[in-house]
Design goal:
Shape: globular
Structural class: alpha+beta
Largest sheet: 6 strands, antiparallel
Strand order of the largest sheet: 1-4-5-8-9-10
Order of helices and strands: HHHHHEEEHHEEEEEHEE
Strand content: 15-25%
Number of helices: 8
Radius of gyration: 22 Å
Distance between the termini: 24 Å
């Protein structure tokens, strides 16, 4: 389940890296206020902090995930289409955010914007490449060239906008609404055993809210949130600068990687595709670009930046590959 591992890496970085941004500064600069010129104290503090966090992340990821599974020689794995490509979009989102955050951290040190852009994209790719190398030496998974392609797409989404506009007019975002699953009875292929859909979801996605947010593909949606005002050529328009239009992608009824079948020891289960067909979903919904909310306070700017990685709950229209059209009051 590649998206879980990328999100574990994402969480390590999100929780640990920002501490250096709150470090004591010379009196001339406020906390979190970017430097106009390269500040060597900030640069080396950022470099040392980043190296420490990266090392801790690699060790933590190995202990929390890979140490429980057998190792193997380096090998490839074709996972195209697995989980209806939800994990691939997750790779794009994670690399985009890591590139963008690393860029902001580099700008905080006073590094020139262009150099900070390439450094940010490179660090984002490096973080995710670490996960892929681990996968390549794990018997359960393998090195995925498709993951690398979608990682690259995430970094290029950041770089392309920075080069074109020197701002991120299209932000990649994430949302997840944990759900409960029914006690629908699933009978084994030999007809001798039964389980429930709820039990399968617990085994696959975990039971806690945090596990469900990170793991449950059926509950997740990835968004491209477009800041409409940024594309209006004249400045005297009345369109709110903070109001975005978001296009989302999700999938439904996934209880296995490529198909809804699984084994419990020697017992094989297959879910009825007529009752639970797998399908892809596309959404349209309003959103907020928190970075467009004006403030002179560096702390609020940093807070708004992190809030901007999450799609706010809002009404949404869904079109799906099952031929359905649905309205959601909150998505």
């Amino acid at each position: 389940m590649h998206i879980t591992k990328t999100k574990i890496t994402h969480c390590f970085l999100l929780l640990l890296i920002p501490f250096f941004l709150f470090a004591q500064e010379a009196p001339k600069l406020k906390f979190l206020q970017p430097s106009d010129t390269l500040n060597k104290k900030r640069f080396w503090l950022a470099a040392a902090s980043g190296a420490t966090v990266y090392t801790a992340t690699v060790i933590g990821l190995n202990e929390a995930w890979y140490s429980d599974f057998p190792r193997s020689s380096f090998h490839l794995f074709n996972d195209a289409g697995e989980w209806e490509d939800m994990d691939k979009i997750g790779h794009t989102y994670t690399t985009y955010f890591e590139s963008r955050w690393s860029f902001q951290a580099a700008c905080w040190t006073g590094m020139p914007r262009r150099r900070a852009m390439w450094l940010g994209a490179g660090l984002g790719m490096m973080y995710q490449m670490t996960v892929e190398v681990f996968d390549g030496f794990s018997e359960k998974w393998g090195f995925s060239t498709h993951d690398i392609a979608f990682n690259t797409l995430g970094a290029l989404t950041f770089v392309g906008q920075e080069m074109a506009w020197q701002e991120q007019r299209i932000s990649l975002k994430f949302s997840s609404v944990p759900r409960s699953y029914p006690d629908f009875v699933v009978t084994s292929q030999d007809g001798q055993n039964t389980t429930t859909l709820n039990t399968r979801a617990d085994n696959l996605y975990g039971k806690s809210i945090v596990e469900r947010i990170l793991k449950d593909y059926n509950s997740q949606t990835y968004w491209a949130s477009v800041n409409v005002a940024s594309f209006i050529p004249h400045d005297n328009h009345k369109f709110p600068k903070w109001l975005n239009v978001a296009v989302g992608y999700g999938a439904e009824n996934m209880f296995g990687g490529f198909e809804n079948s699984w084994t419990d020891g020697e017992i094989e289960y297959v879910l009825d595709t007529d009752l639970y067909p797998r399908y892809r979903q596309f959404f349209l919904s309003p959103d907020i670009d928190f970075t467009k909310i004006k403030t002179d306070r560096p702390f609020l700017k940093t807070l708004f930046f992190f809030l901007n990685t999450i799609k706010i709950p809002a009404p949404a229209m869904e079109v799906n590959t099952a031929g359905g059209l649905r309205w959601h009051w909150l998505k």
